[in-house]
Design brief:
The chain is an alpha+beta fold. It has ten helices and 21 strands.
């Protein structure tokens, strides 16, 4: 660690961060949240609590002449019993918008999850340091994207020159909500989740409310989106509702209407894009709930299987095809009175032909190559002329 006297320590404050909806002061430092405190107080689900504290899309945005930078953080690493260790979370450095380095922070807290028993426990750990050196001379804008899948407390920021918040880039703000696929699932890094890739290609500022396992039409999430300033809004709905076997068709339609009504309270005219699920063969016509298949754990493989009965669709159980039909109908009907409401079938982002070339490794989540494919396609469909978010 640098020990000379020329370090400048800059307090970590909200004006240095983008992509977070709330910042919690902890004993060690600052914990970014992607849901505000009021929303967090209205849920007691551990999965959602974990997901919203993982800073997908959250980044430090600085202007500085510094050539050396150190960031102390306290990460929380996830360990799944019986599954090979997960790689450390990736931090990505951008200088004037261009990739300039990657790093990880070892150590930290350890969250051990046993999926066979449904139990979890946390072992406290120590703060670690991320270091970027040999940065270009002169004034520059720096972004440090935090790991999309690793809860990260920010403890200290040190540089060899003064730091100030990066200026507002003047780009449109895109607010997106979805499942673990939007959260980043098995993307290679925080800037290569499909929403981050699409935002870069579309020239917009991303606020990513992709919440692993938790895109469940929760009213508190809708209210959080309602109250967040944004120019463009999208919601990717369906896979988690089916995975969790959360509701039947009778409840799903009104819940979608209620979610969209709440969004429109805060954003009455913003382009609003409803995206249905990408192809997921195990749940296209088979209801949930989804269950892990532990048969391959000895070889380090975990897959998922839908446990419902396709015949139960007749009694209102949901599948991905049922949800696509319902979302298409709802958007079509609402669009008669809402000219800025749009629908995108998720199979245009990843469909049957893609599944043959790029199968989902665990039958649910896209890998890094598929994230890139989805991000590029979303950008072409949504941000191009004639798309929902076209200029």
């Amino acid at each position: 660690m640098h020990t000379t006297d020329d370090w400048i320590t800059t307090p970590l404050t909200g004006d240095l961060l983008r992509g977070a909806l709330d910042l919690e002061r902890t004993e060690r430092g600052l914990l970014p949240h992607r849901l505000p405190a009021r929303a967090r107080a209205q849920n007691n689900d551990g999965q959602l609590a974990m997901a919203e504290s993982q800073p997908s899309g959250v980044r430090l945005a600085l202007r500085t002449r510094a050539t050396v930078l150190e960031l102390d953080t306290l990460p929380t690493k996830r360990v799944y019993v019986g599954v090979p260790p997960r790689p450390d979370g990736v931090y990505e450095l951008l200088v004037d918008g261009r990739p300039a380095g990657r790093g990880s922070v070892v150590g930290g807290n350890t969250l051990t999850i046993d999926m066979t028993t449904g139990t979890a426990g946390v072992e406290p750990g120590e703060v670690g340091t991320l270091r970027f050196a040999d940065l270009p001379e002169g004034t520059k804008d720096i972004e440090i994207w935090l790991p999309h899948n690793e809860t990260t407390e920010l403890v200290a920021l040190r540089t060899d020159a003064p730091v100030e918040p990066a200026p507002d880039p003047g780009r449109r703000v895109w607010l997106h909500h979805g499942s673990s696929i939007s959260h980043g699932s098995d993307a290679a890094s925080p800037t290569t989740t499909w929403p981050a890739l699409a935002a870069s290609l579309g020239g917009v500022e991303l606020i990513n409310l992709g919440l692993g396992g938790s895109a469940l039409l929760d009213p508190f999430t809708a209210r959080a989106m309602r109250d967040t300033p944004a120019d463009l809004i999208s919601v990717k709905i369906g896979i988690n509702v089916v995975n969790a076997d959360l509701m039947r068709l009778r409840a799903f339609g009104p819940a979608v209407h209620g979610f969209l009504d709440t969004l429109r309270e805060g954003h009455p005219t913003a382009p609003l894009l409803v995206v249905s699920p990408i192809l997921c063969p195990v749940q296209e016509d088979t209801p949930g709930p989804l269950a892990p298949d532990f048969s391959g754990l000895a070889e380090g493989r975990l897959r998922f299987v839908a446990t419902g009965d396709p015949a139960e669709r007749a009694s209102g159980k949901l599948t991905l095809n049922v949800i696509r039909d319902e979302l298409s109908r709802i958007v079509s009907e609402r669009a008669a009175d809402d000219g800025n409401l749009y629908y995108l079938d998720g199979r245009e982002l990843y469909g049957q032909a893609d599944a043959a070339d790029l199968p989902l490794p665990d039958d649910i989540h896209p890998d890094a190559a598929t994230h890139r494919l989805i991000g590029e396609r979303f950008a072409k469909l949504a941000f191009a002329d004639g798309g929902a978010f076209g200029d």
